[in-house]
Amino acid sequence: MTAPFRGPVTVEAKAGSFMRFMCTASTAWLAGQRPGRVLAVLLLSLSAMGSAQAQAVAKPAAAREWVTPATGDVQRGAALYQARCTACHAVDSNRIGPAHRGVMGRRIGSLPGYKYSDELAASRLRWTPQTLNVWLEDPEELVRGQRMGFQVDSAQERADLIAYLATLK
Ligand code: HEC
Predict the structure, then answer these.
(1) For a pLDDT cut of 70, what percent of the chain falls above it?
(2) CA nearest to 148, candidates 163, 162, 138, 133
């Protein structure tokens, strides 16, 4: 009885007639039901769709691939720091941005006396060459909702800055 397989055309035709069958069947089923029951089934399937969607949203993001920056040059990093960062930061005092001494290894957003954005203060990450690299390239990518409006596009410059920050013990 099974028809020989005749390529995608046959498969599509079968899918089409299956859909038609399902429509006819469900219309027939609907016709035979009391409206209350129909509504209940409709609501049930809607909420099932809703929870499937919620699960999709709650699914944890794939683990990030941390990139270890190349070895940087401390001297160049110090010069870049002077040129780019000191508009907002200082090594030993909080200004528009927090003080940087001891930043390497420190928990993100944890320096006492500086008023961080809630987003930064809530971060559970630490400053490492990897997290600093993402932060300097695009702070928003590391901590959404943060307040530092500055980016360093060059990977080498980021590496140099990170090498310099690591010396601020
Ligand atoms: C326009 C001002 C501005 C500039 C320029 C700037 N920053 Fe920031 N930075 C901030 C602010 C504001 C924060 C705090 C962000 C928050 O609380 O969300 C911050 C936070 C940081 C932090 C987090 C420190 C901590 O204690 O968690 C690091 C690291 C940092 N900046 C590095 C740099 C470096 C390196 C440069 C130079 C390449 C730089 N920033 C340039 C404003 C700036």
Answers:
(1) 63
(2) 138
User: Do 36 and 86 sit in the same domain of this protein?
Assistant: no
Q: Which has the closest alpha carbon to 127: 148, 110, 146?
A: 110
Residues 87 and 129 in one domain: yes
Q: Is the model more confident about 44 or about 3?
A: 44
Range of the domain at 147: 74-167
The pLDDT tens digits of the residues spanning 17-29 come to 555 555 455 555 5
Same domain, 96 and 34: no
Which protein residue has the closest C-alpha to ligand 1 atom 38? Answer: 85
Handedness of CA 63, 69, 70, 71 (dihedral sign): negative
Is residue 91 domain-shared with residue 151, that is, in the same domain?
Answer: yes
Q: CA-CA distance, 158 to 156, in Å (whole number)?
A: 5
Ligand 1 pocket, 162 CB below 6 A? no
122-150 average pLDDT score: 97
Q: Is residue 67 part of a domain?
A: no
98 CA distance to ligand 1 middle (Å): 7
What is the arithmetic mean of pLDDT over 46-74?
A: 71
Average pLDDT rounded to a whole number, residues 77-94: 98
If one residue of 89, 141, 153 were mutated to test the ligand 1 pocket, choosing by the most ligand atoms within 8 A of its CB, it would be: 89
Decide: 98 in ligand 1 pocket, CB within 6 A: yes
Q: Which of 150, 156, 161, 162 to mutate to test the pocket of ligand 1 (most atoms within 8 A of CB)?
A: 150
Q: From the CA of 116, give the closest atom in ligand 1.
A: 17
Split into its structural domains, the chain has a count of: 2
